[in-house]
From TrEMBL:
Primary location group: cytoplasm
PANTHER family associated with the record: LISH DOMAIN-CONTAINING PROTEIN ARMC9
Identification of the protein by name: LisH domain-containing protein
Limits of the LisH domain: 200-319
GO cellular component: centriole; centrosome; ciliary basal body; ciliary tip
Location of this chain's protein in the cell: Cytoplasm, Cytoskeleton, Cilium basal body
Keyword tags: Cell projection, Cilium biogenesis/degradation
GO terms of biological process kind: cilium assembly
Amino acid sequence: MELVETLQQAIVGKTITNEYIDNVCSRLGLARLRESMSNVMESARLGIDDPFTEKFDYAKIKRDVVHISTSPRQKALLLQALRWKLTKAKTDFKREKMLECYINCDLLGCQTDTEQQTKIIKELSTPADTETNYVKEEWARLINTIASLRKGRNYLAPNESLIICMQKAAIAEKSDTSTKQHLLAALQKLSLRRSVQTVMINQNMIKWLVPLLNKTDNLSDYTLEYGVALLMNLCLRTDGRKKCAEIADQAITVLSTLLAHPNHETRPYVNSSLYSILTHKSIRDKAIELNLDNRLRTLIRTETSNSETKGQLEFLLNLLCKGGDQIVEQASDDEQDNDDEDQDVMEADLDLADKLQAVNQELSGDDLILVKYSSQTTTNVHKSYNNNLYASSTHDFKSKTPIDPVLHRPTTPGQLRQSIVAHTVDSLATSLVVGDIFHSQSNGFEQLNGNHTMFAASTSIPVKKSLSARSKSASIT
């Protein structure tokens, strides 16, 4: 209630002091600690290795999702149920525990079970008919869901064969199907990993992406956004820019068109992709030949509603007109992945437009898993996570303010959206579920006067390092 009253007071014109905000934030940190400790104490009290992990027969689950005796519809419903255990988890903690169960049983064969891996690759690679189409789509949705989580990316990323298979399967989809959308989104999330970037660059992903993004009328917003974001992540690498140089004419034309696309969610990735490839002299020369400078000037002149967008366009024009070799501070080709910037983001799109529904008394979701795969015996998934409680939640709310006009480190659309959410309000709102921490009411309100500033929710957090001192005055749209 304190949070609600605080926001109401701010709306009607009362000021909240910095001291009051500091006090709330410190109590929120304490609440996180108390919540984590309560889980540890509960585990100890019950005398159980892991009271939060549901016990299922994962060996049977692994067998049934790929076995020839399981009908395509049964496979699809099982894969859907496994996804729902992650997307519909009541807490981040339970979601993380369930993911650990999938990883520990090597559900996708990404560790040592090469036979399982081979069967999954075959299912993704086989042309889908009406009966098996649901299976391929449910595999794509499950992989996309796992790739949405940091530990899931750690599990999937080393599996080069699966990465290549996913890319080929996405390319094989002739239209913008749900299967293509989720495979592309999963690949984009995995492109946070440098090893995966290397695989996709070597597999000529850029040469497929650029023509794909030229067909915006036939693409969903989801495909367009993740497609451009994937292109950006790959173009941050030197080898990626070299691949773009091979199709410079087409790359410049497509990105130039996307600069004015009505979907504003794509603009940070379009601007950053252009910035990256324009540091390559041959591409810059081609851009001038194609009159990109005039295109930018026109957009700058007509952009009257968004000063930040106008600033980004001016930034690109300045780079284009400089000439010579450009040295920029982007993701180094030999630097390590930054786990601190690798957040867990579960999107509503993971379950959106899923047409698979149980019929004629079929079991689905929790009912399916509980009835067919419940196990009373202890499985081998009782790994201790007391030192990592709520690790994903901590990453989710880490402050990162976009202070550069373009992005210089790999990110995903989900992460970028999360980073520009009102961080203060979001963190305070989340704390409403935590009880017994607001014992003392602090009268932090003061009437607005010339010595105080109205409380305003922070709208963004540092996502990427600045390119130069010059660029720190601009912000990502």
